[in-house]
Amino acid sequence: MNAFRPRSIVFFLGFCLLLGAGAGSGAAEKIPLDKVVHPILPPVMSPELIPETRKDPVYPEKWRKLHLGGRVILQCVVEKSGSVSEAQSLLTTLRVEADCGKEPGKWAGKEAGDAIAPPEAYQDFETAALEALKRWKYRPGTNNGKPVAVFFTQIVEFSPCPKKPDSGRPQDR
Predict the structure, then answer these.
(1) Which residues of 40-57 are buried (b: 16+ CB within 10 A; e: fewer)?
(2) Residue 77 and residue 144: Cα distance in Å, rounded?
(3) Dihedrals φ, ψ of 152, to 5°?
(4) Distance CA 12, CA 152 (A)
(5) How is the beta sheet containing 171-172 ordered, strand by strand?
(6) pTM to 2 decimal places
(7) List of domains in the chain
(8) 31 vs 152 pLDDT, higher one
């Protein structure tokens, strides 16, 4: 009887990532295999956002009257230089923040997955998040101490409410 082998699963996952057989493999442009590594494969270290370069994304003003807030999850490549390339939106979720955060996490819609805004709103929030991300700089990811280009996931939050001190920091993943 064969025992469960975690190493073979990790190898298979890495092999699939190298072949581009994961989600989104139908993308029009593929990043060359020799250009990017994935931080889940050791000994790769994830990039770190340089706080001084982080500027808040511009809130799409035409949606403020609907009190829309949200979260945009982006995937990008952080290059050896610390700049961002190949950025794309993975998921955008919007919510109504009518009370400006007094009830955090209150999502609009009667059922999970209900649309609360027109598709144009989702596009506007994604565009604002992508524009902000491309201006940010990172300490590059490393592989055995040497800078390398690395896939990176960044979460960008939006709120129609006035900003609280030290809030709105992006979450790294």
Answers:
(1) eeeebbbbebeeeebeeb
(2) 18
(3) -150, 140
(4) 21
(5) 84-96, 68-78, 150-158, 171-172
(6) 0.67
(7) 28-172 (3.30.2420.10)
(8) 152
